[in-house]
Amino acid sequence: MKLSQIGELALLRHIRQRFKKPSPNIIVGIGDDAALLKPVNKNLLVTTDMMVEGVHFNLSFITPYQLGFKLVSVNVSDIYAMGGKPKFLLINIALDKNTEENIFDDFFSGITDAMELYGLFLVGGDLSASDKGMALSATLIGYTKRYIRRFGAKAGNRIYVTGNLGDSACGLELLRKIKSPVSLASSKRRAKGKEHRVKSKDTLLYALRSKLSAKGLKWIDVEPLLRRHLMPEARHPEKFISNATSMIDISDGLLIDLSRLCDESKVGAKIYAKKIPISSELKKVASHLRISPIKLALSGGEDYEMLFTAHPERKVKAIYIGDITESERVIVDISGREKKFSAEGYQHFGIQR
Amino acid sequence: MKLSQIGELALLRHIRQRFKKPSPNIIVGIGDDAALLKPVNKNLLVTTDMMVEGVHFNLSFITPYQLGFKLVSVNVSDIYAMGGKPKFLLINIALDKNTEENIFDDFFSGITDAMELYGLFLVGGDLSASDKGMALSATLIGYTKRYIRRFGAKAGNRIYVTGNLGDSACGLELLRKIKSPVSLASSKRRAKGKEHRVKSKDTLLYALRSKLSAKGLKWIDVEPLLRRHLMPEARHPEKFISNATSMIDISDGLLIDLSRLCDESKVGAKIYAKKIPISSELKKVASHLRISPIKLALSGGEDYEMLFTAHPERKVKAIYIGDITESERVIVDISGREKKFSAEGYQHFGIQR
Description:
- The structure is a homodimer of 353-residue chains.
- The first copy, chain A, has ten helices and 13 strands.
- By secondary structure, chain A is α+β, with helices and mostly antiparallel strands.
- In chain A, strand 4 (85-95), helix 4 (101-118) and strand 5 (121-129) form a beta-alpha-beta unit.
């Protein structure tokens, strides 16, 4: 059934029913002019993000389920990057009135599964028609006593990342070859994930695996890269937080996000290409696609790992990739040569990757 | 200059510079992963709204300045409707990279003027390219100790509205005839409004006035209706608040919003057509356009007046339009006949006006 046959009020009732899970802090959730939350004696964190079809996502590459999941993760990552605990979510969605109901349902299943993963509550949002294409935005509210800013890095601090970089960008390159959405099984942590029910697509997945295999690519290498792009999970920074002097999440690419951190902290940075963590899957697949894995790791976006700095004497359970300097920003390449870097990476209205 | 020639980072710097007004409650504003606000010992209110080109607005009818102003007002109205004080704003904007810089500037001038009017601070948002057309969303955070819900109306309560209805819908009808954006002078309260500087458009305005005059319409009647549609001001409910048992803002039309209030409160309503407040301008212009003013007042959206209920013995400084009943929902027409009503009005994906 198409959304136009169901009507806005019925859709809203449906959403309200689905997300009526109670929280002791919610006085008024979905269904009034605004959400009303009890006061909490902690600093309040708020972040918002917009995702527009054709710019941030392409429904030929991503399933509505994955899109919903990703929209939540992206916002959670921003709250985590401040050292906070995300809690209350608001979702705006504008979509064509000829959209089929199952697309709408799958999108909200992705939202629901991500909410479960991160322990969130939906408290509001807006539902509307769109003239053409889908537009989404989410707002996430969190709380924290102690916070970590982009500002705070000092010369002599070490620079760390929390995991492999470039996987997501490589996943996107793969999708550009595959040219169709790929259903991914839910991870163990999302055991109730709705993606498993798309049985009819299993044949497609089988065909895809054969196709990849014919090209010498193994599903076991491809799947983690696709997952990093389609269903990224925000990195909880809890175990680093007591040591971090500054922090940012890597959403637009290491170089652009490190530049932002340096801009805010008014410092420079020296990073070592050979220290940038690259997954074995990325190495294999990138060489197959004839792309430089290090290039993807430096300039590819959407990895949602944390980038942070800490005093050199502190023990840090993360990957050391370089040092904060007074002012110059350089990357030492594999052969030991120093090159200056600037805010490269994805920039709307400007430099493209 | 086009936005693509300026680049995202330069635009963000520009916005950050423009909105760096300090507030003692903002620890971190624009420019980090999330905004960080000091705890306040009051209930927190959050609302969000999305506006999509071609659905919620048409740039052939509204100037970017008015659009920015309206986006803020719409959200302020939601916070007011809970009895709250709006405070912190986040804006998401997706627009074509070939957009001219002055459109972007004018949009933010509208945002700024509305922020000044309501005493708001911009603390975050997202800026991105769009494939086609403009998409906007805003999130507004407010605080309140006492709150008023849609739930709470009791049989025997009186129903009130805070001002004339139908003006905005009539303004929209006028714009459909005028078929071009109309610059409006800033009101006294927005003395620094940027609309005055568009001198080049004064000739257009003069031509428009002549055209209206030839049709027998006076600018003095037309202007307030256009203003209600293009630059609505949210109605501060302060003077009613101690008496209200339930409240909602009229964004989608009196009948649909009264139905919502009745649904939540599980009550009925009886309203009197002859008591619905209609401006003299609406009467004149609607008769000219051959539209029923009462129809616009009942089903037209975007008036942003408050609709609330109160005990009958309370003295209320608002317009009494009917009574809360046990369950039936009727409107008594001018000739005294009772008609049932349901949630008519604008509904996305469904019934159109």
